């Protein structure tokens, strides 16, 4: 069913438009080869991905800082597969990961088609908890920057989703109203519930197939958003 009265659409970036998992895997493959890290990539990723999500949750909740996130997610992943990697190597891998990650540009299936469909009728924006230096490069390299009027990141706003302050900051930057705005993102807590609790409508991009309440609007493919917009 079409959502009426929407003028501004706010997207999350990682895991919503930009295919983080695919680009991250390609990045690890590159930097592990460069540093002669002899590890089964799939085995590493199987432990890294949930560890990374957990550290991002801690980061969202202000339990750790950016530097701790970058180091600890790698340290804990190597420890989990019982691989000894010295701290100086972990720190270098962490730095190289940030540099190389935006050089891979895979988007979710249907991203460009959806943005082309939406742009003539809505003002489009980004709200991301990702780091400014990385997010800007990701958008430029994947050639989607021109679709968006504004980009709000947690470092600019001073808080992270789901804190209502970041949604208020994004609306002020966009000169938009919450009653005519919509948030689209993959993270139920940060993107969807964060927006809904703020008073903004939201749709969950539930590509991971999680069981969520039927009262929450959701799609499993970006192209399905056309049914709402």
How does this structure look, described?
This protein has 229 residues and is an alpha/beta fold. It folds into two domains: 8-18 and 107-227, HAD superfamily/HAD-like (Rossmann fold); 20-103, DNA polymerase, domain 1. It is built from nine helices and six strands; from the N terminus they run βαααααβαβααβαββ. A six-stranded parallel β-sheet has the order 3-2-1-4-5-6. β4, α9 (188-198) and β5 (201-205) form a beta-alpha-beta unit. The longest helix is centred in the first third of the chain and has 20 residues, at 41-60. It starts with 7 loop residues before the first strand and ends in a 10-residue tail after the last strand. 35% of the residues are buried.
Précis, in short:
The protein is α/β, with parallel strands linked by helices and 229 residues long. It has helices at residues 20-34, 41-60, 66-80, 87-100, 111-118, 132-141, 154-157, 164-174, 188-198; strands at residues 8-11, 123-128, 150-153, 181-185, 201-205, 218-219. The chain is elongated, with a radius of gyration of 18 Å.
Query: What series of H and E elements makes up the topology?
Result: EHHHHHEHEHHEHEE
Q: How much helix, percentage-wise, in residues?
A: 40-55%
Question: Which architecture of the largest domain per CATH?
Answer: 3-Layer(aba) Sandwich
**What structural class results from the helix and strand content?**
alpha/beta
Total number of beta strands: 6
Distance between the termini: 8 Å
Radius of gyration: 18 Å
CATH level-1 class of the largest domain:
Alpha Beta
Total helical segments? 9
InterPro entries: HAD-like_sf, HAD-SF_hydro_IA, HAD-SF_hydro_IA_YjjG/PynA, HAD_2, HAD_sf, PGP-like_dom2, Pyrimidine_5'-ntase_YjjG
GO molecular function: 5'-nucleotidase activity
Keywords: Hydrolase
Organism: Bizionia echini
């Amino acid at each position: 069913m079409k959502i009426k009265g929407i003028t501004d659409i706010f997207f999350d970036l990682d895991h919503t438009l930009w295919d983080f998992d695919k680009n991250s895997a390609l990045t690890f493959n590159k930097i592990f080869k460069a540093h002669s890290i002899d590890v089964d990539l799939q085995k590493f990723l199987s432990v890294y991905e949930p560890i990374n999500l957990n550290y991002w949750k801690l980061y969202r909740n202000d339990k750790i800082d950016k530097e701790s996130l970058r180091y600890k997610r790698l340290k804990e992943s190597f420890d989990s597969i019982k691989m000894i990697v010295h701290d100086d190597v972990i720190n270098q891998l962490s730095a190289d990961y940030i540099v190389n990650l935006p050089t891979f540009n895979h988007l979710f299936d249907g991203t460009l088609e959806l943005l082309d469909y939406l742009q003539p009728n809505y003002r489009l924006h980004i709200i991301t908890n990702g780091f400014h230096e990385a997010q800007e490069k990701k958008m430029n390299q994947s050639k989607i920057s021109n679709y968006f009027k504004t980009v709000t990141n947690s470092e600019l706003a001073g808080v992270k989703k789901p804190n209502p302050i970041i949604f208020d900051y994004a609306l002020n930057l966009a000169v938009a109203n919450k009653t005519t705005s919509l948030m689209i993102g993959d993270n139920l807590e940060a993107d969807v519930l964060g927006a809904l609790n703020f008073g903004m409508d939201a749709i969950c991009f539930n590509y991971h197939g999680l069981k969520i309440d039927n009262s929450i609007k959701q799609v499993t493919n970006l192209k399905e958003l056309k049914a709402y917009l």
